[in-house]
Specification:
heterodimer, A: alpha+beta, six-stranded mixed β-barrel, disordered N terminus, B: alpha+beta, three-stranded antiparallel β-sheet, 14% strand
Chain lengths: 887, 114
């Protein structure tokens, strides 16, 4: 506070107020006035100046304190006023923008609909990306859980032998819990309507601890449940609880009949354990029998480990590697070399999909980019119409910043309108995506939730700036005087035209990237469909069947029953042939079998990883797999007869080169218990692990010599096989009415299913590519049509001077062609880089496949030329007289 | 300061200022003097405390301030009542009357409380 002795207000401070408010000065001035007035009063009453000042101050009170309080109060007021002014200006901008847009409904509708499609598609794909990839996993300690694979040379084995897992569980102290699961043929539920196969997983007690999500009801397996000989218990899935028990909370402790045996329900799993619908499922304890715990060869268990808090992954791996190295040393040729490879849970669940989904998100973003290009182009064209309006606003004192802001608000309004409408598009898109048969975990949960809404909003704002900013700046930079002198007509639009052309070239380039990506995937799937499976996949039915151990305990009884069923199916009219196997091709991999040539010590090339499957005499015939040498199995290959095997061409070549393998003996594993078998035949190779995968080496045993309670029948029809299913069911029921068929499908269907995810990607990318192409064509059309409109006068002059319609038409189309040529050239360069991301998704062709590149370039150029043909034809119809008079 | 003075009740200062301004625009010093004269110096407002009250009322939109010249040609900040302020004055005056009536009744009571 200034002293009262200095009663002069510095003049300069008053001038400050011309530029900005000056709260401190105002407060001081006001209080000074008060004090001075009091002093004058006192002087008039006859006081001495000193006494008067003293009295005035006493009468006023705490001058410093009050002036500080006043300063604070006036600051508050100013802040509030600034804010209010800002909001008021914004509100005015919005109102004005709304009015402007309403004045040109056609433009607004085109822009908003384009944006709605673009933004909606992005939101739909993002909802999938969020649901599948970004959403945290539901497991309580997901960040500390890893799955482990054994290394085998350069590759890995997905699954552990029971013995290895048991050793891990006892010795690996780095883990709070180590669990394992293995797939199981579906168990047949009886006593609840028709017998129904229920998808089944065998899970150890440790699995539930490592992958914990609180149960919906009851509890998961305890160590006591997970022991050989413990009473049968089962955990049922949430959906099964809802569907079959109506969510009844008293199910805990109740028995259900699975494969003819009672299982006590101990818990209902959290619904979040199900990654794919349909969600009916049961879990039974792994409960490995003692005999399995000494198995260090059959890779069957998927291991999940929950690291102890604070234990780094590296030290856990060190520990597991030590254990595995010892086991590998003790069990040579068992399919592992001592190395252990961890996979984080997130990677395990969604890792293989990440690239595909982000690629789709990138592609749909590119479509929006093209859409933004079109809208920017429209805005630039509109700029011409609005020159006069902007010039007047400028003349009335609006700054450039203000005009840019105003135009951006218009863009924002378009963007937000597009987003609101786009939510409808997004919902439709989500329905479509979640109902697609792609095998994508957690896809079914995709929904319009908070993160998706936030994404949509951000996308709307970003797009608005993307398509709005440059046109806004261009408009604001208009030469005011020039425009007003011209009466608002265009005089120097050349720069803006250049910009619009650059936009269209950019759009064509982006469309090219999209189309080439789609083209590569389409060519891949065609290539994949053309891959010979090695057997006749057409009109071939596969049916899984499992005999309950309660009633079929002994292998001879099992085999006899299966043979009876096989005979019953074979006698169904319309069935040409029936075969039986354990693990049908395409349906699954066979059993691991380290094939071992007699005479080799097992340490050279003599030991080969192969798939082992069982087969009946008619199996190869039913499959249409060619027998190349020797014979097929016969009824004479009995359980107690000489042990025989048939091998695939690839395995024969690998073990024996060109030599005839018939009559040679082949063993399994390390030579201690080789279980020698005599090779009696060689069959052709087939892509039994799926068409996109390598041809595995196969070894077949007679079903009599390797009996398994679950088998797959393959039925070759003389008539369409799906029509035979009811008769086949009756035939099976004739043998045992309590048996349930599961996974009834044609091999063609299985092949189709195995390609579902890649077809999903291909289809979507194709759709996006087509959308991009249409948008780019619209962009080309817009620019060329505008050019024709702008040059009506010039074209009229040319025609008056004798130019023919053809000349004029060519002149216009050439413009479109130049745009296309530049766009395609740049697009090819960009695609060479961009398609690298498709490396793992293409099949049978290079990601730089020249055919795709050339075809797409041709299509794009053609579409661009066609798009410029329409305005070109209009140009030929210009009447020179009208055109000349018009200006 | 006057010898016999009454401390102002909370909120009463607002009412007094609003009433004062209802006669027309006035600066802070003028308001202080007017209160002093009108009440014949019974109400002693510590003049400094008048200003925070004025600023607060301005923030609430009851009054509006403007710099202007006084009769002797000096710059002073004049306050005037807004429409909102006028309504506020009516409302506050009504509740003031209610309260004084109520207190008056209590003071005039002749019966002992039961």
């Amino acid at each position: 506070m200034r002293s009262l002795d200095d009663d002069r207000i510095p003049a300069w401070r008053r001038y400050l107020r011309f530029w900005r408010s000056n709260s401190a000065g105002d407060v001081e001035d006001e209080l000074s006035f008060h004090l001075e007035s009091t002093v004058e009063e006192m002087l008039r009453a006859g006081m001495s100046p000193e006494a008067a000042r003293e009295a005035a101050r006493r009468k006023f009170g705490d001058v410093d304190g009050i002036s500080r309080a006043l300063y604070t109060l006036s600051q508050q007021r100013e802040r509030r006023m600034t804010r209010a002014e800002w909001f008021d200006a914004l509100r005015q901008d919005f109102v004005y923008a709304f009015r402007q847009l309403r004045k040109s409904p056609a433009f607004t509708a085109v822009a908003v609909i384009t944006l709605a499609l673009g933004i909606g598609a992005n939101s739909a794909i993002f909802s999938v990306v969020y649901s599948v990839l970004l959403r945290p996993l539901p497991y309580a300690n997901a960040d500390r859980v890893f799955t482990f694979a054994e290394q085998n040379g350069s590759g890995t084995m997905c699954c552990l032998p029971y013995g290895n897992f048991d050793v891990w569980r006892r010795e690996a102290t780095s883990f709070e819990a180590l669990g394992a699961t293995t797939g199981s043929p579906p168990l047949t539920l009886t006593g609840q309507g028709d017998p129904a196969p229920i998808p089944t997983t065998r899970a150890s007690a440790g699995y539930w601890k490592a992958m914990f999500i609180p149960p919906a009801l009851g509890h998961y397996f305890t160590e006591a449940d997970d022991r050989d000989g413990a009473p049968n218990v089962v955990v049922i899935s949430y959906a099964m609880w809802q569907n079959r028990f109506g969510g009844d909370r008293s199910v805990i402790g109740r028995n259900i009949m699975l494969n003819g045996r009672p299982y006590a329900i101990v818990g209902v799993a959290s619904p979040q354990y199900v990654l794919y619908p349909p969600a009916e499922k049961v879990w039974v304890p792994l409960a490995p029998p003692a005999s399995r715990l000494t198995d260090f060869k059959d890779h069957e268990l998927r291991a999940y480990g929950l690291l102890r808090t604070g234990v780094p992954l590296a030290s856990a791996i060190r520990q597991l590697t030590q254990i595995e190295t010892r086991l590998a040393h003790e069990n040579p040729h068992s399919g592992y070399d001592g190395g252990v490879a961890p996979t984080s849970l997130v990677e395990f669940v969604v890792g293989p999909l990440r690239l595909r989904l982000y690629m789709l998100l990138g592609a749909v973003a590119l479509v929006l980019l093209i859409a933004c290009g079109n809208i920017a182009s429209l805005l630039l064209a509109r700029a011409n119409v609005r020159r006069a309006e902007m010039a007047i606003r400028g003349a009335l004192g609006a700054t450039r910043g203000r005009i840019v802001m105003q135009l951006l608000v218009e863009s924002l309004l378009l963007g937000l309108g597009g987003a609101v409408l786009g939510l409808g598009v997004a919902i439709a898109g989500m329905r479509f995506l979640t109902s697609s048969p792609a095998n994508i975990p957690r896809l079914h949960d995709a929904a319009l939730n908070g993160p998706v809404l936030a994404f949509t909003f951000v996308l709307a704002v970003v797009s608005s700036i993307l398509f709005g900013l440059v046109p806004a700046i261009r408009v604001a930079r208009l030469d005011l005087q020039q425009t007003l002198r011209d009466g608002g007509r265009e005089s120097r639009g050349a720069a803006r035209e250049k910009l619009r052309r650059a936009l269209v070239v950019g759009e064509l380039c982006v469309a090219q990237i999209l189309l080439i990506g789609a083209g590569l995937l389409i060519r891949s799937s065609i290539a994949l469909q053309g891959v010979p499976a090695g057997f006749d996949t057409r009109n071939l039915l596969a049916i899984d069947l499992q005999l309950p151990i309660a009633r079929y305990a002994e292998p001879p009884q099992q085999e006899a029953t299966f043979q009876a069923i096989e005979n019953a199916i074979a006698s169904v009219p319309g069935v040409r042939s029936v075969g039986r196997t354990q693990v049908a091709p395409i349906h699954g991999f066979g059993w691991d079998w380290t094939a071992f040539r007699e005479g080799s010590d097992g340490h050279d090339d003599g030991a080969v990883d192969s798939n082992m499957r069982s087969a009946t005499p008619d199996y190869f015939n039913a499959l249409g797999l060619r027998l190349l040498r020797g014979r097929s199995f016969t009824r004479g290959d009995a359980a107690d007869g000489p042990k025989v095997a048939i091998i695939s061409r690839g395995l024969a070549k690998r073990l024996y080169g060109e030599a005839d393998p018939i009559g040679r003996r082949i063993g399994n594993g390390n030579g201690e218990h080789p279980g020698w078998r005599e090779i009696v035949g060689v069959v052709d190779d087939m892509r039994s692990s799926g068409l996109a995968n390598d041809v595995p080496r196969e070894l077949y045993m007679p079903s009599t010599q390797w009996v398994n309670r679950s088998q797959t029948f393959v039925v070759r029809g003389a008539v369409p096989v799906l029509g035979l299913v009811p008769a086949v069911r009756r035939a099976v029921a004739g043998v045992d009415p309590m048996l349930a068929l599961s996974n009834v499908s044609t091999i063609e269907q299985s092949i189709d299913d195995s390609m579902a995810t890649s077809r999903f990607t291909t289809w979507l990318l194709g759709l996006l590519g087509a959308t991009g192409l249409i948008l780019a064509a619209v962009g080309v059309y817009g620019v060329i049509a505008y050019m024709v409109a702008q040059r009506t006068h010039e074209l009229g002059v040319r025609m008056a001077l004798g130019a023919t319609g053809g000349t004029v038409q060519w002149m216009v189309v050439r413009q479109g062609f130049v745009l296309a040529a530049v766009g395609v050239a740049v697009g090819i360069l960009a695609s060479l880089v961009a398609t690298k991301t498709l490396q793992t998704m293409v099949f049978g062709i290079s990601p730089r496949d020249p055919v795709t590149f050339i075809v797409v370039a041709g299509v794009l150029a053609l579409v661009a030329v066609i798009a410029s043909f329409v305005p070109a034809r209009r140009a030929t119809r210009i009447d020179p007289l009208v055109a000349l008079r018009g200006n | 300061m006057a010898r016999s003075s009454i401390e102002l009740l909370q909120g009463t200062l607002d009412l007094i200022v609003l009433k004062t301004l209802s006669w027309g625009p006035m600066h802070g010093f003028g308001i202080a003097r007017w209160i002093q004269h009108t009440t014949e110096e019974v109400l002693q407002v510590e003049e400094g405390s008048l200003y925070p009250a004025l600023y607060r009322m301005e923030n609430r939109g009851w009054i509006k301030a403007q710099w202007a010249l006084t009769e002797n040609g000096r710059r002073a900040k004049y306050y005037r009542l807004t429409a909102v302020g006028r309504r506020q004055l009516t409302a506050e005056f009504a509740s003031w009357e209610q309260m004084t009536n109520a207190i008056g009744k209590i003071m005039a009571a002749r019966r002992e409380p039961a």
